[in-house]
């Protein structure tokens, strides 16, 4: 049986009796009138509300004194009506006559003196009627005025024919058919009318000319740039650790690394500050978007941090964040798509519209995943602001893969290329691709006391294997060379496992499991040898081992690994051939710290082990991988690299009034003439240029290295002329300009010289037996190949 609370019964009965018909009538009129006024006149109370579309033609019908008086009177009447309705609502129903009479008289006594209750209700109804008449008059006046304005501007909303805006009419046609395809168009005020199309295409996008009848002061203007603030070196990284956030294992790893290197960053900042002296450094506002850590990209790295997964990318990103922060720049860090959209000002929709505001960042550091996300959500703003983007790209992107049209036509298109950026906007982990900028990372730098302690504590017969994942130990033939190594040294591994020893690891290997970074460093400090199995390629661990006094032994690849014969490189935007597991260690460090041998040749391998056991090495770290070296390099990039304001090169074949080149005394190459004026704004400085004609089949990267120099692609425009060939005494029977990443070059046979037609295709990489390439080279600072002698 259901019971009912007596108090509840009384409450319901009171409500039903209280809301008598005439009170419902008055309440309904009041509510209806209020809603009508809000919806009809809400847009008239101000000329522009914050959320209004910039394209709404708002007629100022409420601007005069009479109109304002009407609104005030209407507002006062509504307020009085609401107060009286509130008073009436408090009266009790007539079923409780005695108490209701007393309370009712008390309530009525509080009403202002005047006619009775019914008369007041009639007066309210009459006032509402008067308000409706006034509203009707105002709306009629507004519609009449709006129709006159529209009639007068109808002929001004046709797509203009302006040769400066050739795409305008086509874009208007597109908008007619597709403006509803993305909600962002409605967000910017597009409503299906011709005028809204033209206003959008002229004021939000830039395909149509400004409309003369538009109030140009109302259109969006870029805010005045903030006054420039001088960047000041920082030594306390606690705020950076807060900016990095938490919640992901990858971020936790990066923060631990940054915290561990705090003292070294602080010391490096002091040294660089002394080196730069009084050089003014403007503080940049920088967005760092780590795309591969976003959920939208899959974030395959974070779950593997504690399971032996690759850490190279996280090592590099942690060091990039630290370097930018220590240099004194303003940082914003995002690791989610939502954060990215919020910081960029992405409008709601599907990403076809430009940003809602000018980009508030001078530079954006991201990766290929982040680059793709920005392109999807920035609309036309991506094309406008892409010159500010720097792409952290481990293995590099060669110009032939970067140029979309050329890559498509000549078979260089991959999943990661065709962005049409300046190739120097791609920043690599090692300086293997001069067409890109070398970003790098840092390793721990030891003082002399620490170095001596390491040398004294070395175990001469201890080796550590490079490979934390069991899959790396599946290399065929490893038992053969590991058994040889086992005759001379005790072998240690750091392979991740959960409960059982990985079967891929031989029984004679002492496996420590996955070690935290500090414990792994201690293991390296004891070991004599750090041996690689051929994978992973170009990671940070070999440099860390060498910095801790180990000899690094690696496999020589024959034939070299590339996208043509190895799955790992397939699809990457580079044709680079890799001759060993770590080409930088082989080419820039070498013996006695690095030994590269053929693991398939047992005699060569065993001889190398015997020689290493008798070789004494000190801990060694190249300057460019110290904290100071990385700060120096990134400072130079921020200070001098400007891909937005850089002037375009002269058309191919254009001759300067006076050639800046002279033939070197030994007649082997060109040099910048001492009396020639320097190219304004050129960086690296043009006087560091040395131009060589490479042998047939030789890439400019290798041709410059043959002479102890570095290929410098920014110098190509200076050489892209017939004058350069003539100065080198090259017999050109003909001159042609074409799109080819090997040009400028001299063709044999045929005696024909070819110039580059597309500046984005200037490339240090690439070779052909048909061509002798004209190569721009430069000097470099000791231990810092990214910078020339005068680049600071």
From TrEMBL:
<keyword id="KW-0328">Glycosyltransferase</keyword>
<keyword id="KW-0808">Transferase</keyword>
<dbReference type="GO" id="GO:0006487">
    <property type="term" value="P:protein N-linked glycosylation"/>
</dbReference>
<keyword id="KW-0735">Signal-anchor</keyword>
<keyword id="KW-1133">Transmembrane helix</keyword>
<feature type="domain" description="Glycosyltransferase family 18 catalytic">
    <location>
        <begin position="184"/>
        <end position="777"/>
    </location>
</feature>
<dbReference type="GO" id="GO:0030144">
    <property type="term" value="F:alpha-1,6-mannosylglycoprotein 6-beta-N-acetylglucosaminyltransferase activity"/>
</dbReference>
<comment type="similarity">
    <text>Belongs to the glycosyltransferase 18 family.</text>
</comment>
<dbReference type="GO" id="GO:0030145">
    <property type="term" value="F:manganese ion binding"/>
</dbReference>
<keyword id="KW-0325">Glycoprotein</keyword>
<dbReference type="InterPro" id="IPR026116">
    <property type="entry name" value="GT18_cat"/>
</dbReference>
<dbReference type="Pfam" id="PF15024">
    <property type="entry name" value="Glyco_transf_18"/>
</dbReference>
<feature type="transmembrane region" description="Helical">
    <location>
        <begin position="21"/>
        <end position="41"/>
    </location>
</feature>
<comment type="pathway">
    <text>Protein modification; protein glycosylation.</text>
</comment>
<dbReference type="InterPro" id="IPR052105">
    <property type="entry name" value="MGAT5_Glycosyltransferase"/>
</dbReference>
<keyword id="KW-0812">Transmembrane</keyword>
<dbReference type="GO" id="GO:0000139">
    <property type="term" value="C:Golgi membrane"/>
</dbReference>
<keyword id="KW-0333">Golgi apparatus</keyword>
<keyword id="KW-0472">Membrane</keyword>
<protein>
    <recommendedName>
        <fullName>alpha-1,6-mannosyl-glycoprotein 6-beta-N-acetylglucosaminyltransferase</fullName>
        <ecNumber>2.4.1.155</ecNumber>
    </recommendedName>
</protein>
């Amino acid at each position: 049986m259901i019971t009912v609370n007596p108090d509840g019964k009384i409450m319901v009965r009171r409500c039903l009796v209280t809301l008598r018909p005439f009170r419902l009538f008055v309440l309904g009129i009041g509510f209806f009138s209020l809603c009508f006024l809000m919806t009809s006149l809400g847009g008239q109370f101000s000329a522009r509300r914050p959320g209004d579309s910039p394209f709404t033609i708002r007629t100022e019908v409420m601007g005069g004194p009479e109109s304002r008086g009407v609104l005030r009177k209407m507002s006062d009447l509504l307020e009085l009506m609401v107060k009286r309705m509130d008073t009436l609502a408090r009266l009790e129903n007539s079923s409780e006559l005695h108490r209701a009479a007393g309370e009712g008289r008390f309530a009525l006594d509080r009403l202002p003196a005047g006619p009775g209750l019914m008369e007041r209700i009639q007066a309210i109804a009459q006032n509402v009627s008067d308000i409706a008449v006034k509203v009707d008059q105002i709306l009629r006046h507004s519609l009449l005025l709006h129709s006159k304005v529209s009639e007068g501007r109808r002929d001004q909303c046709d797509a203009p024919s302006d040769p400066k805006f050739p795409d305008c009419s086509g874009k208007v046609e597109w908008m007619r058919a597709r403006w509803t395809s993305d909600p962002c168009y409605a967000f910017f005020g597009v409503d299906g009318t011709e005028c809204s199309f033209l206003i959008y295409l002229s004021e939000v996008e830039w395909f149509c000319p400004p409309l003369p009848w538009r109030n140009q002061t109302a259109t969006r203007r870029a805010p005045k740039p903030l006054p420039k603030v001088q960047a000041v070196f920082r030594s306390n990284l606690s705020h950076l650790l807060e900016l990095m956030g938490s919640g992901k294992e990858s971020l936790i790893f990066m923060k631990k690394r940054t915290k561990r290197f705090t003292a070294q960053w602080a010391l490096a900042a002091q040294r660089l500050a002394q080196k730069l002296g009084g050089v003014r450094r403007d503080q940049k506002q920088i967005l760092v978007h780590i795309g591969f850590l976003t959920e939208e990209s899959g974030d395959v790295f974070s779950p593997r941090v504690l399971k032996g997964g690759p850490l190279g990318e996280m090592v590099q990103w942690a060091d990039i964040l630290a370097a930018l922060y220590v240099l004194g720049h303003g940082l914003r860090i995002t690791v989610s798509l939502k954060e990215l959209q919020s910081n960029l000002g992405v409008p709601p929709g599907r990403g076809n519209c430009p940003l809602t505001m000018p980009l508030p960042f001078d530079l954006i550091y991201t990766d290929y995943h982040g680059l793709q996300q920005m392109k999807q959500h920035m609309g036309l703003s991506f094309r406008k602001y892409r010159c500010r983007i720097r792409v952290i790209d481990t293995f590099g992107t060669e110009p032939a893969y970067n140029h979309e049209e050329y890559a498509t036509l000549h078979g260089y298109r991959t999943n990661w290329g065709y962005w049409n950026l300046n190739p120097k906007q791609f920043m690599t982990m090692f300086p293997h691709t001069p067409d890109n900028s070398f970003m790098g990372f840092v390793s721990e730098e030891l003082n002399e006391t620490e170095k001596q302690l390491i040398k004294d504590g070395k175990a001469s017969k201890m080796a550590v294997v490079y490979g934390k994942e069991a899959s790396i130990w599946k290399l065929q033939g490893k038992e053969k060379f590991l058994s040889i190594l086992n005759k001379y040294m005790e072998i240690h591994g750091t392979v991740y496992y959960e409960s059982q020893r990985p079967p891929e690891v031989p029984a004679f290997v002492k496996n420590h499991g996955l070690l935290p970074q500090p414990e792994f460093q201690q293991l390296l400090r004891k070991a004599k040898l750090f041996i690689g199995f051929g994978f992973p390629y170009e990671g940070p661990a070999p440099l860390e081992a060498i910095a801790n006094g180990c000899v690094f032994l690696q496999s020589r690849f024959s034939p070299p690994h590339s996208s043509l014969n190895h799955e790992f490189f397939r699809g990457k935007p580079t044709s680079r051939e890799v001759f060993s597991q770590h080409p930088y260690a082989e080419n820039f460090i070498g013996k006695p710290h690095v030994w590269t041998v053929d693991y398939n040749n047992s005699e060569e391998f065993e001889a190398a082990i015997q020689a290493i056991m008798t070789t004494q090495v000190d801990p060694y770290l190249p300057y460019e991988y110290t904290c100071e070296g990385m700060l120096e390099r990134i400072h130079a990039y921020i200070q001098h690299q400007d891909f937005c304001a850089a002037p375009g090169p002269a058309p191919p074949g254009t001759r300067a009034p006076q050639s800046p080149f002279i033939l070197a005394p030994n007649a082997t190459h060109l040099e910048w003439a001492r009396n020639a004026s320097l190219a304004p704004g050129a960086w690296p400085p043009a006087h560091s240029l040395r131009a060589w004609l490479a042998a047939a089949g030789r890439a400019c990267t290798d041709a410059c290295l043959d002479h102890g120099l570095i290929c410098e692609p920014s110098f190509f425009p200076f050489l892209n002329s017939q004058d350069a060939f003539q100065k080198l005494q090259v017999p050109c029977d003909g001159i042609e300009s074409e799109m080819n990443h090997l040009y400028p070059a001299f063709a044999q046979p045929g005696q024909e010289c070819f110039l580059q037609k597309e500046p984005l295709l200037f490339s240090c990489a690439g070779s052909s037996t048909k061509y002798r390439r004209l190569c721009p080279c430069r000097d470099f600072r000791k231990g810092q190949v990214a910078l020339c002698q005068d680049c600071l």
